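Write out this protein's structure.
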Amino acid sequence: MAVKKSELYSSLWKSCDQLRGGMDASQYKDYVLVLLFVKYVSDKYAGRDDSVIVIPAGGGFQDMVALKGSKHIGEGMDIVIAELAKANELTGIIDVASFNDPEKLGSSPKDRVDRLTALVGIFEEPGLDFSRNRADGDDILGDAYEYLMQHFATESGKSKGQFYTPSEVSRVMAKVIGIEHATKSTQTVYDPTCGSGSLLLKAADEAPVELSIYGQEMDNATYALARMNMILHGYNTAEVQKGNTLADPKYLSELGGLKTHDYVVANPPFSVKAWSNGVDTAHDPFDRFTGYGVPPVKNGDYAFLLHIVRSLNGTGKGAVVLPHGVLFRGNAEADIRRSLVQRGYLKAVVGLPPNLFYGTGIPACLLVLDKAGAADRAGIFMMDASKGYLKDGAKNRLREQDIHRIVDVFGAQRDEPGYARMVPYAEIERNGYNLNIPRYVEALGGEEQQDLDAHLRGGIPVADAAALAPYWAVCPALHDALLGPGDRAGYLSLRVAPDAVRGTVYEHPEFQAFQRSIEATYGAWAVRARATLLALSADTKPKQLLPGLAEDLLHTLAELPLLDRYDVYQNLMDYWASTMQDDVYEVVAEGWLARPTKSKKGHYTSELVPRELVIARYLAPAQAAVDEAAAALEEATRAREELEEEYAGEEGVLSDYATAGKLDRKAVAKRLKAAGPASGSAPAKRGRKAQATTGTMFAAQEAAEAPTPPDTDADELAAVRAVGAAFEAEEEAKAAVDKAKNTLEAGLAKRYLAPLTADEVRTLVVDDKWLATLHQGLSHELARLSGTLARRLTELAQRYAEPLPALEAEVATRQAQVNSYLATLGFSAN
């Protein structure tokens, strides 16, 4: 079976739980990622003569499995890892952590054995069998690695931002430098502070050709992560060097200067105070400060930026994450900033949301560098993308729609009010080369202006209604259906009651026609998407499938008014992440098979084809019978509870048969048996059955008409018989529900085990599951459109509904009432 991302992520994080208590969360990666590496390369390459990774005798994952339960398991795992490292020149990379460390893995030998045995067992689970995963080229392991890196960064209590750049930010950076236009494998991409390599890899992944990869990282453990990361992502030839980039850059030209690159991406540590240690700032041999000036001794932001500028070739492009302070700080940094602007190297500044990065909550920005065409550049493209994000736990993150919007607007270099604009150099010069984004991109929204005259005299201001112009452009007659002339110029009145606004909008012919046009346009995309999805096979690359569907959706919806196409796009991306991704990987690996499973209760279902889909398409009558029986049971229960409430209270005639207001069924049955059958018992039974389906009090009426034995309380006996009938009717209704459910389950079993054909599975999954769910998302967006208009108009109507004179008159009336009441009590209002 294919490795599913959700199962893989769950298993890997479960392995982290085995390490809790013995070490800081920042150290989990030293153990879990090594085991992930050993397991992956063992599954993929063991026994192969043509593999890029050699799995030597005694150096594979199965050798670790053989150690489970052994008192020497920790020592043995270290030996296995050392053998694998030695065979692949990975010494000092994958063998940096000891699995025999009592301080981190348990001082008690038994505790250590149990912990490591459980840890190996997690990686031994079938869900982590990479040898059977057929979705090659889709980097499922690389994604899992990124998942773990994100969680390590979240959990870690120290240095947590130094080795991981959120993948969403990495993708934005890769796209804004235009790396997708790379054409030759000789072109290079470089990260001078590469950390675990995630940013560097995201950039390389965007290129249509395999670029030459270069990275440098100072921290030893993080450098090791980067080397493993490259291999897990399939970039075995990537070069990653260890060392201080500013003091000891490893990539040099033949002449001894810095090697230059086509693309550079970087997320250097913010505002490093000791950046100049080991750097000859007066006579830098790499010529990084010439023409710019030396950055402040206690702030290294511009030191990294100038290193990047010097590392770009004549047409090179780069993107670097830095704190907003680089945009406006003065003194030496102001001089450097002015020089960068005047040379034309700075193409764009993109303001990012706050709290995106691990280890800091401050907002950061992207500086986009481009030496190509620098001499002809007329300004800097400024973007404020700080408002587009989703709060995710303690952090914020960019949504897919936020990423796409940044990239789309940047690529088109188009002005958007409150979001982006091209700022000419003359304006920047007038501002003293201060690049603080709010100086150039004014935020929309803010505090809403109130109309004082409308508060005084009522009416909806024309200006407020005009702000809804996009709606009126699509539905001009809807404006007149909702709004009419006011009692004076410049003001309107609402033609319908406030609570009728939404219905008026939704039912208006123009709005319904608008909805149909959107449905038709979306439907054209759905037809194309359906054909693509029905054609899924073992040759499909899931990661290539999604962009095609998503980009087609955005293009299809591009010209539609009102509808935010990015919201619809986000719906697709969210559903892909939550459900479709796993489904597609399963179909690619296993084919169109339902693969049903049976629960302990004997009920069949399937992850790919859930039972609800099979029921809806093939067993609707059986489900209707269950629903009908359940409704009858609910009615029978309600009737029994009504009798219980009437008779079982402290003053009720059956209080002797109840505890805490609940009747004892056995006591009631015993009393009925003692009383003997009522006359016409057969009709009584039919009456009880009718009660279960109609909720009548037939049984109570019957009991009242039945003869009463001598020396018996007639009211009590009638109540006992009525309650007994209600209990019996409820039991009959329960039996009917069970019977209907058994019939439904039998039908499901027959359908699943027949089995469902490949064509049936295709229809159920593509039409009834994927496309139906996505269409629900579109319906939600359409409902939101009508709701937004209705809510705004209702808000305006209510805001100005009671003008000040009316309020003053009401206050006067209330005051007169209070004065009158005081007078009756002998008090004077004066």
